[in-house]
Please model this.
Amino acid sequence: MRDAPAISYEQLLNWLRFIDEGLIEQRGFLTELDAAIGDGDHGTNLARGAGAASSKVDAEQPEYLDELFKLVGMTLVSSVGGASGPLYGTFFLRLATGVGHRQELTPEQLADGLEAGLGGVVERGKPEPGDKTMYDAMAPAVRAFRAGISSGDVASASRSAADAAAEGRNATADMVARKGRASYLGDRSVGHIDPGAASVALMFEALAAALA
Ligand code: ADP
Ligand code: MG
Model:
């Protein structure tokens, strides 16, 4: 069996760039979603955090992927307020330890990193399936990536991860929020997409674009 081609540092840097661009583009949309069931800061929060992370990365130009993701995670924790800053920050910090001290990754190593990141979100936020949070998009996406690499290449695996995230995002509309600010609304949160699930879908769409 031939080895799968490695995922390069540059591709993963592109992932971060595409997230950044997507957040600038969808800032208004994410903020509208959060205005409906939260406090309307999700898009602004994340766009600011991603901008700060990109500036740090440009300035420090970390050589290894664990350093790159650690820098992103630390910047998100310190520059993004609200629930999503620590959650996304933890995701990237765990992704950093999950992928290890490397400059390129096998598909399996990226899957390990994504699973570690998801584990960090679970530890931090204690979301359960169906609580109407970012977890409901992230968990199916990470699962789809792992399943995808066992049967195909990273391009198709990341495409199915993005599709799973979008499906998970859409499914949050029917859920009653049980975590975070939206949970204060109870049943009135039904009928609205969770903003964090929407930003996760954006993040996996960016990954699919970077690994296409
Ligand atoms: P805040 O709610 O503090 O204003 P944001 O608006 O930036 O923070 O982020 C809200 C998103 O954070 C929600 O849409 C949800 O996806 C996610 N979230 C909130 N609490 C939790 C939690 N305990 N576990 C997982 N995700 C959560
Ligand atoms: Mg908010």
Summary: The mean pLDDT is 96. Residues 34, 38-39, 41-42, 45, 82-84, 87, 125-127, 133-135, 179-181, 194-197 surround adenosine-5'-diphosphate (ligand 1) (CB under 6 Å). The domain at 7-211 is CATH 1.25.40.340 (Serine Threonine Protein Phosphatase 5, Tetratricopeptide repeat).
